[in-house]
Structure formats: structure tokens, C-alpha cells
Amino acid sequence: MKKLNSWTLLVLACLVQGVAADDIDWQSGLHYHAISPAPAPAAADAPIEVVEFFWYGCPHCYQFEPFVERWLETKPADVVFTQVPVMFGGPADLHAQAFYALEVMCERERVHEALFRAMHDQKLKLATRGELETWLGKQGVDVEAFRAAMDSFAVNAKVNRARALMRRYGVRSVPVVVVDGRYRSGSGFQGYEGILAVTDYLVDKVRVQRAAAGPGAE
User: Fold this and answer.
1) If both were cysteines, with which of 48, 104, 183, 191 could 18 make a disulfide (CB 3.0 to 4.6 Å apart)?
2) In the 8-state DSSP scheme, what is residue 185?
């Protein structure tokens, strides 16, 4: 993918106005897209994975974050939620690597929201490794340990997996939610809550598909 197209795609996201989710007839090809090839159905009692693809520098992802936090407070017990940083080149790649470095250091949860706020409320670009390290040091992160984590095999493996998931799921803009590796959120929403409403719809859809597949599904 050309860099120009990648950065253009970063700014494409749903603008919000708010509408009751029950009033929407969710449409395949608009509100969500089936991912092909689809994975084999999992067992009916297996967790349903919901993955949000995001970038710290994306204003829509920052605005979406409070909606995700509220959704997580009431998410079904059979749903497992994961965030995956995208890599569209430039600072996005740096931030994805930092996301996983902080994760292996057990620091990600502590600084996740602060990093969003720094970039959008305080208008810090944090576009270079030096800028990021300086900021992290002010947050009490061990910078030497961060540098080691950034160059570690574990972080490289996580970054490579995230990049592979982006390709597999056809992620070209953020925020995007993928349900069970089968469905990707689309467009046409009239509120950020619409992305999560269609997520709930797709989770229910996956449950029905698993039940129809029978107990022998894997």
C-alpha cells in the first residue's frame, strides 16, 4: 500500500450524531463486512473475540475510547476484547511497537489513556522515538527497560502478528472492530455507539452460527 493512501485512509472514520441502535436494520456490505475466507466455526462454548484496531494518533479512536470503556463494563461474559494497534507507516508503526513494548513491561494499562490525552489534548506529536521516550520517562516508565523491550523478540513477534491480522481482516481505516475473525465493522453509522451496537449484533450472529454448526465444531 502506498504511504499517501495509507495516511489518507487513517482519517476516514464515522462521524457521529446519535440514533437508537434498535432503529437500525444492520446491512451487510455497509454497516459490516464478512471477512473472506472465514475461519472454521469454533465450539459453541469458546470465547468470541472482539478486536478493535486503533492508532493513538487518530482523533476518532480517541473519541471512540470512552464508548469502548462503557461497553466493556457490560460486555457479555463469553466475549474477549483485545486492542490491536495498526501500522500504516510513519509514527503509527512507532506507536504500535511502543504499545507492545509497554505491554510486555506491564505498563500499557497505566499509560494507555495518558498517551491518548497527550497526543490529542496536549497536542504532543510524539512522532519520534526520542520524543516518545522523553514523554514516557515523565510518566515514570523505565526508559532503559522500554528501549530493551522495543528491540526484543517478543515485541517484534507481536508487531508481526498485528500486521498479519491487519492484512487478513482488510483493515484500512480506524477505528475498526472485528468480531470472531468473521466480520469487520463498516460505515454508515450515525454515532460511535453504532459501531458497538453492530458489534453486539455480530456477536449474537456468531452465537447462532456456532449453535447451528453443532458441538463438533472446532
Assistant:
1) 191
2) E
∠ Cα 29 61 157 (to 5°): 90
Distances (CA, A) of 92 to 115, 119, 125, 129: 13, 12, 11, 12
Strand partners of residue 49: 80
What is residue 11's three-state secondary structure?
coil
Cell numbers placing 143: 526508559
pLDDT one-digit tens code per residue, 111-121: 999 999 999 99
**Rounded Cα distance, 169 and 33, in Å:** 10
- The CA–CA distances, whole Å, from 184 to 27, 149, 177, 203 equal 12, 31, 6, 12
Q: Above pLDDT 70, what percent of the chain?
A: 88
pLDDT digits (tens, 9 = 90+) for 37-69: 988 888 889 999 999 999 999 999 999 999 999
> Do residues 132 and 94 lie in contact, with contact meaning Cβ atoms separated by under 8 Å?
yes
Confidence (pTM): 0.87
Q: Give the separation between CA 189 and CA 32, rounded to whole angstroms.
A: 10
The grid coordinates listed for 66 are 470512552
Would you give the distance in Å from CA 151 to the centre of its chain?
A: 23
Retrieve residue 112's grid coordinates: 494507555
Strand order in the sheet with 32-34: 32-34, 183-185, 176-179, 48-54, 79-85
**Contact (Cβ atoms closer than 8 angstroms) between residue 176 and residue 33:** no
Q: Identity (one letter) of the amino acid at 95? A: H
